[in-house]
Amino acid sequence: MCIWPEFHGTGHPRGPDELRLKELNTLFKECEKESHGNFMLLPGEEPNEFFGGHWLEFFPKPVYWVMSRKAGEPYVTDDNRYGKVYHISNKDEMLKLLQDENGLAWTAHARTKGSTGFPDAYKDEAFYKSDRFNGAAWKNIPADLSTERMGKRIFDLMDDMNNWGLKKKVLAESDIFSITQANEMYAHVNVNYLKLNTLPDFKNGWQPVLDVLKNGNFFSTTGEVLIPDFKVNGADAGSTIKVTPTTKSIIDFTVRWTFPLNFAEIVSGDGNGVYRQRINLKNTTAFGSKTFHIPVNLKNKTWVRLEIWDAAVNGAFTQTVWVN
Can you spell out the DSSP letters for 184-236? Predict the structure, then answer.
């Protein structure tokens, strides 16, 4: 299990250095202390600087950086206590930091709250087109109890990003803000299931976690619906497949669920439109598991993905498979 905490607006993101670096060091030490066995607590941060809107950064190891740089101060320095320290002053340097330290970024709660208008406003920027900008995050806001799925706002964005052709990903997120014995976390926390052979050791870094997020070989869920297996013509989520006019495409997926299911939907696009193939699952009962083999027409399509929703509007979704 992996989760990541961050400051979320508190602390001293722009310095002074002695406070910012001490805060980061405390975060890293706390995460390392709590990471053991089958649990990892991994540090990330929502900087909300330089790019526009709200966004997340996630590095594969502890990285010390300050969200400001004084005139004449170098981009990177060596600190006697903390080692390499970066000072960032603009979006180009932020992208360079992500590239230099192999980090990932993505838009938080896209198209709403502090990210209203994003990532649309920067989709043509170099940092967004970079493979360091992974995409966006999903959660159920704004909530609408009249709909048959949660978080339609981000699924619309996911389809738009797919049609833009930039091979972005969408991972589930949750804002908790505090963790106490009085918190009801379980009901609100969305989950990303990553295909990892083993859980990394904190002290050696967690690059495999970022690799899976970058490659898209994971699914996201509210918890009650699981998709342990999903393949398009034998290829995993995040893959690119070749389809000819004579290719007979098949989507294979396995579902495990708690409440009776409502439907599965195969969503695809051609760079312009979005197409949906619905599988009615209202004949299911509680606590089940089933494997499906569904023929799908991918002629002239450029991407395809899967969503599954239950009778209580809990759900799960895969990342995209790209069609060449």
Answer: --TTT--EEEE--SSPPPGGG--HHHHHHHHHT-EEEESSSEEEEEEEETTEE
HEC string of 2-53 equals EECCCCCCCCCCCCCHHHHHHHHHHHHHHHHHHCECCEEECCCECCCCCCCC
Domains, the chain, ranges and CATH? 1-215 (no CATH), 224-324 (2.60.40.770)
pTM: predicted TM-score of the whole model, two decimal places:
0.94
- Banded model confidence at residue 69, pLDDT cuts 50, 70, 90: very high
CA quadruple 279, 280, 281, 283: dihedral sign: negative
Do residues 123 and 117 make contact, with C-beta atoms less than 8 angstroms apart? no
Q: How far is CA 18 from CA 11, 21, 30, 89, in A?
A: 12, 6, 18, 18
Provide the pLDDT confidence category of residue 5 given band limits of 50, 70 and 90: low
Provide the CA 280 distance to its chain's centre, in angstroms.
28
Phi-psi group of 50: left, alpha or beta (phi > 0 → left; psi -120 to 50 → alpha; rest → beta): left
What is the spatial distance between Cα 189 and Cα 229, in angstroms, rounded to a whole number? 22
Structure confidence by residue, pLDDT tens digits, 286-321: 999 999 999 999 999 999 999 999 999 999 999 999
β-bridge mates for residue 309, sequence order? 263, 315
Distance separating alpha carbons of residues 103 and 123, to the nearest angstrom: 19
pLDDT tens digits along 260-283: 999 999 999 999 999 999 999 999
How many Cβ atoms are within 10 Å of 79's Cβ, its own excluded? 11
Higher pLDDT, 183 or 159: 159
**Longest Cα–Cα distance in the chain:** 68
Phi/psi zone of residue 124: left (φ > 0), alpha (ψ -120 to 50 degrees), beta?
alpha
- Cα–Cα distance, 183 to 305 (Å, whole number): 34
